[in-house]
Amino acid sequence: MTQANQETKYDDNNIFAKMLNGDIPYHKVFEDDKTLAFMDIMPQAKGHVLVIPKQKAVDLVDLEPEYAAAVLMTSKKVMQAQRQVFEREGIIQMQLNGSQAGQTVFHYHVHLIPSSIHELGRHAVTQADQGELAEMAKKLAEVINA
Ligand code: 5GP
């Protein structure tokens, strides 16, 4: 793995690494051999999903081409399901590199947010209802797997 920058080294105990290891629970939307998609616990809009690679990458610089492709393909699947489930065309695809940009979890991830840039909620502030997250994950998974 190449290092993302001088400041941030990959931490095996970051929250997404723990999810990949099965150490903490999450509301799964989709999984394949190279990626995992799950509901964001502090969504910036209803239906906010995160897509992560199964690679130890801090940010975009670290991401290997096969994982970059896999993350994009999973993101397409998730976004198409979001359009259907939430009945809206507009989905924001966002990805933060480095704490200066506002990144808070240092395992590369793509945000897919059913919202508008003019209506986006605050970043990683308000916890969503677990029951609602479970319900949305189930609906999205059903559409993806149909
Ligand atoms: P970043 O700031 O790194 O771009 O985004 C990290 C995202 O992870 C935030 O949107 C935040 O709400 C989400 N997040 C942080 N901790 C957890 C967690 O324990 N579970 C889930 N599902 N999402 C989390």
From TrEMBL:
**Which residues are listed as membrane-spanning?**
none
Q: Which domain of life is it from?
A: Bacteria
Gene Ontology molecular functions: catalytic activity
Query: Pfam families per the record?
Result: HIT
The protein here is known as: Histidine triad (HIT) family protein
According to the UniProt entry, where does the motif Histidine triad motif sit in this chain? Answer: 107-111
- Which positions are catalytic residues? H109 (tele-amp-histidine intermediate)
What organism does this protein naturally occur in?
Psychrobacter luti
Q: Which InterPro entries does its entry note?
A: Histidine_triad_HIT, HIT-like, HIT-like_sf
PROSITE patterns attached here? HIT_2
Looking up PANTHER family in the UniProt record yields: ADENOSINE 5'-MONOPHOSPHORAMIDASE HNT1 (PTHR46648:SF1), HIT FAMILY PROTEIN 1 (PTHR46648)
Residue intervals of the HIT domain: 15-122
Alphabetical GO biological process terms: nucleotide metabolic process
